[in-house]
Automatic annotation (TrEMBL):
It comes from Sinimarinibacterium thermocellulolyticum. Gene3D superfamilies: Cytochrome c-like domain (1.10.760.10). This is Cytochrome c domain-containing protein. It comes from the Bacteria. Residues 1-19 form the signal peptide.
Amino acid sequence: MGTRGAALLGLMVALPLQAYDAKDAEAFFPKWGEYPVPDTPYRSENRSVSVFDLIERNLTTGIWEGSPKVQAERERYAAEFYATLASRKVWHEGHGQATHPFQGPIVWDIVPIPQAAPPPCDQPQPTGYDADSCRYVNSLFKDLEKRDPEAARKAREIVRRGRDVWFKGTFGNQDEEYLHLARTVGRENVWYPWLDTRTRPYRFTKWGMINDPDCEQGDASTNWYDKCPDPHSSGVLGYRKYYADPLKNEKGEIVFDPATSPYREDELRKNLRYVLGGPCVQCHVAFDPTNPPKNPNEPEWENIHALIGNQYTMQPMQYVMGTPEDSLARQVLGRGHRVGTIDTSLVASDFQHNPGTQNNVMDFFNKRLFEEDMKHPVTGEIRKARTRAVLKGGEDSVGEHLALIRVYVNIGMCTEECWTPNFPVPGSFFGEKARQKPFRIAQCAKDCEAWNHADAKMPDLAAFLMTGGPTYLLKAVDVDGTPGSAFVDLSKVPQGRKVFARECAQCHSSKVAPDNIRADKEALARFYEGHVFGSEQFWELEFSEEERNSEAFKAKYLVADASGKLRPRQFAKDGVFGQDWLSNDEPVPFHIIGTNRCRALHDNHNEGHIWEEFSSETYKQRPSPGAEPNVINRMVPLIGGTRVPGERVIEGGPGYLRNFSLLSVWATAPFLHNNAIGELTYLDDGETIDYTVAGRIKQFEMAYAELMLSDNPADTPHRPQKISVTDRDIKLAPREDQQGFIKLPVAAGTPIANFTSSDPHKPLFMKCDDAVENKGHQFGISLSDEDKLALREFLKIL
């Protein structure tokens, strides 16, 4: 076991679940003890892959083992695990949220917002969520339990803690909305109409939001908030509520105490009672495609999948619903983001319009490992280490620990202490104030204790993420009882598999083909002969009866287990580690993929940019994929959009997109990184997105049909070009904070990218000039109709 693995193992097993006595717990959970642990089997896959497996197989990543403070005080952070999932600011005398200036000094202390630790899983649980967490971990590590019960117990505890971080960890990130976002959209516009309990019956129908199954509609006795056994649940998964600071008058007297004051009609609009923090599930939790709820506005825990990503939510809009319809926030987030996407560089802006899908976390332990040079953010030492690609361009190439904690910063943790001080100053054009500065991890760990709270928990979170598996159509049952098998023509699957091997696997298989045969389709067919792309449970469906009965096939690709049952060699040898991840995860230059290039050109991880310390040295030294023409800013009157001599060379790491995994592709349409290929369908009411198995299949087939069309408007047929545009006349300030006297008129029908893909600190040229969202990925469009149909049916079983 290497040094990195030993340190990781020592950290993980040193973090037991704390035991709170019933009296402490009841202060948090009035319904303590009313939720028995269910043992209902899952239809979706959960993977019994533990941290011990990763260490044994040498699959750990990165060089970061925690901040110096975390490493020095591991026992304290372990003891405070649940007490530090959330935090808030306590302002120094004379300072406060309403008066704190942009990039102002630190004039507060960070204090935790305690949450009770759940009891062990052999006891009734305080909430349905906790009971379902026990159901989840109890379904794991059963083989390990037979060999080593203590190791299985530890593995389950680690995963359970990680799941709690995923669902509950906010680490003070409410500051992003109430402090930073408020500077742009106005404090009066940062509020949440959907928090009103009277919206519960239509939250999914209207906004794609998923109600917490533990909660029920409240009333006047709950101040018109949902009634929940967990006092920090907002009633919506992914949004945690905490008491706001007391409201004081000019004399310093408390005129509204969030914990005790009676209801006020204006309290929701003014955030008087609660502020909201957002854990990771705000983007990633969704209905389990294999087990959709009867009523999408009242799901049960068995209908919830924590990792697939919510294809049906307008997540960025949830925070700005109070803004006017003609505001920049409404137009960019409401009109410029397709459902199920979010531009993660909106706040630490790269000044390019590049919304992307919520990541689908499945079988991450089978992602390829790449060895890269990494610089330690504290010592500066450069050494080689392994990493998995995470972001769409492979930017977070520093191992899971730092990649995960960067996401927490990106959703608001340590906003004022470590993040916004590195932003350019709005309205500046020269010098340091006009440029991003690198976020410094050492500074953040020193000045923002919330970083350390999160940093100590990232190994647990990574362990939980490694247990997420695919959602197979053949295990699905629809709301009306229809089995998933009814939606696929299994007779075409063997032919579709052959098409996939020739046409797709060179990019979409983790069994990596040698470079010298990637252009030879017949050689690829031979290379992938006998290889199972999908689940071992359904491997026989991938091959014809003739192939399966062939003695040569059996001898070469199958092996008998102890019971005499024939298994594919890849699974007999490696078990679940033999599962194909359905991508080689390699970065491909943007012009080869041909999709909208603004996401590929994302440059926040370049040297000198804000996320410099979260990308490897190898990433920053990637060869240039090419150059971009200089195009005059399209918002400049008369000459905007004119191409002028000269080009901008793309360098420093950007310009690539990873080959994405096709695991559960049947359940995740529309397609591409921005959900631009295909369209959503709706239930009979015309308002509710069709989340059923039948609905997902219809959306998949529509997206597949569009994917297989030419993107050239001169061809017949071709994809209709999709460009997000403003739906009304608006006024636009040239500054990113929308302040200042100058307001430019923008006519209805203007492409959103015209004003979101230019840098206001270098306003002469477009930073990315690419408005069409559904072009590119022209692979396979020349296949015969027969092969296209067979390939479509094969993809459904993956």
